[in-house]
Amino acid sequence: MINYKHLHYFWMVAKEKSIVRASERLNLTPQTISGQLSLLEETLGVALFDRVGRHLELTDTGHKVLTYADEIFSLGSELENVVHDKPTEPVLTFNVGIADVVPKSIVYRLLEPALRMPTLVRINCRERDLDSLLGDLDLHKLDLVISDNQIPVDTNIRGFSRLLGESTLTFFAAPKLVDTFEQAFPNCLDNAPLLLPGIASGIRTQLQQWFDRRHIHPRVIGEFDDSALMEKFGQAGIGIFAVPTAIKAEIEDKCEVISIGEAEDLTVQFYAISMLRKVSHPAVTAITAKAGEWLSRNKANS
């Protein structure tokens, strides 16, 4: 039988991605935590973690065990409330995968309707590349994946891609970079330093085609799978970058950059990907009902 104290230690390490940080929260030595994890893996007969540099990453089996551990300790918390006559509400768990190329501000806006449901929702977000997320979706470890790409045609995963909405792209640059421009948009992009989303991004090919049609040849300084990291480099003045116009005001304020022009014929789409049997999840329904409304409103105001 599983030792639930060992399972709790595993749960804490999985959340912290570090034995040291988990030991600090549990007020135990790292050696104690490490020993208990080894006993749990011995009991289950499988490895739960892989060491990647200084961090621990869950194995495929580790992800499955974490899903059950989340439910077990959530129920334990509810049990404690019931025993002490504390009011408790049913909690709906919503496991979401986020393709790392999707801007975080867009993700929040798309997921927000799920937090406004009458039922209390606990959102568990996992951010990875789309292929990894689709694998987790196929194993039913995720209820939904948000991406700027549909399910690739060459995949064997049986899922459903719903278009949530779309947005044009706006180009941004730090003030010190804007001061060097000698031409108006879009010609100012020619030979200018550019930051591109990674090759896995749905907009990457469209961006390159957009430049080719206008005979514009920027100097690519960097490519980023993580949109937040690209924005940081743009904020530092390393290069020009493009993000959805729907979050134009937020990017200008947060990154202290200037919008230099909107590509009205260049759009990025956002999709909600789910397994066919998971489409009825209440949170998925709430998101798909409201996302298009928000993106359409921002498109009209851009």
Describe the structure.
By secondary structure, this protein is an alpha/beta fold. Helix content is 44%, strand content 26%. It has 11 helices and 10 strands. It has helices at residues 4-16, 19-26, 30-44, 60-83, 104-115, 130-138, 175-178, 204-213, 227-235, 248-255, 282-301; strands spanning 49-52, 55-58, 91-99, 120-128, 144-147, 159-173, 193-197, 219-224, 241-244, 258-275. A 6-stranded mixed sheet has the order 4-3-5-10-6-9, with helices on both faces. Strands 1-2 form a two-stranded antiparallel sheet. Helix 5 (104-115) packs across helix 11. It starts with a helix and ends with a helix. The mean pLDDT is 85.
What is the gist of this entry?
With 302 residues, the chain is an alpha/beta fold. Helix content is 44%, strand content 26%. The protein starts with a helix and ends with a helix.
Strand content: 25-35%
Strand order in space, largest sheet: 4-3-5-10-6-9
- Name the helix and strand elements from N-terminus to C-terminus, one letter apiece: HHHEEHEHEHEEHEHEHEHEH
Structural class: alpha/beta
Determine Rg (CA atoms, Å). Answer: 22 Å
- Return the average pLDDT rounded to an integer: 85
Shape: elongated
The biggest beta sheet reads: 6 strands, mixed
